Amino acid sequence: MTNDLAWEVGLPCGGEIELMVQRVASESFSPALFDRIASARRQGRALAITTDLASGRSAAEERSGDDVFVNRYAPPRRLLIVGAVQIAQSLARIAREIDVTAVVIDPRARFLTSERFPGVTLDDRWPDEAVAAHAPDESTALVTLSHDIKIDDPALIAGLGTPAAYIGALGSRRSHAARLDRLRALGIDDQQLSRIDGPAGVQIGARGPAEIALSVAAGMVKAFEAAAA
Predict the structure, then answer these.
(1) 205 and 96 inside one domain
(2) Beta strands in 60-150 (DSSP E)
(3) pTM to 2 decimals?
């Protein structure tokens, strides 16, 4: 394909795009900005880089206007799944497909196996310890699926002490009401409890583990987008 032909093809949708090309240099896109972006990603923070279209110079700041281009570098998204159950298997697969890094947490070794969760990070620590170690940030979701209060409740308490974008708990409305009563008795206030999405996920009339996992994933993505807005 020749260069002329490549530019003649255009977009299949009939739309148009504009390309901005910058040199990596102190007077345009400083090499130090790459370190700023990498540092923000490690800390789970988003970083906005604004380019002045007149001068071509980029800076780590966010401002609006017709004369600037803003590129927001989002941190990697993570999902902490508590409970190595069948729904977790489907949820981990969905997470991988939408570029969310999943970690499955469960102290029950017989469920937490690489055969059941191929290619997924597994953590067999007690949930509150594991959640604290993974340090959820604004690009992290936490979902409890075990149906065992000894496993789910400590994970929820640990998650509520973090800025996690999404905290979901599987179970019926009745079991969720009982869950809230237990957590209140442990000193968790209603403002914190309101962060828990229970029953977890978007209500789509899900049937079976795979559809329930899809519902939970949809709720997680919705929360990620709200946090980024």
Answers:
(1) yes
(2) 68-73, 77-82, 100-105, 121-123, 140-144
(3) 0.80
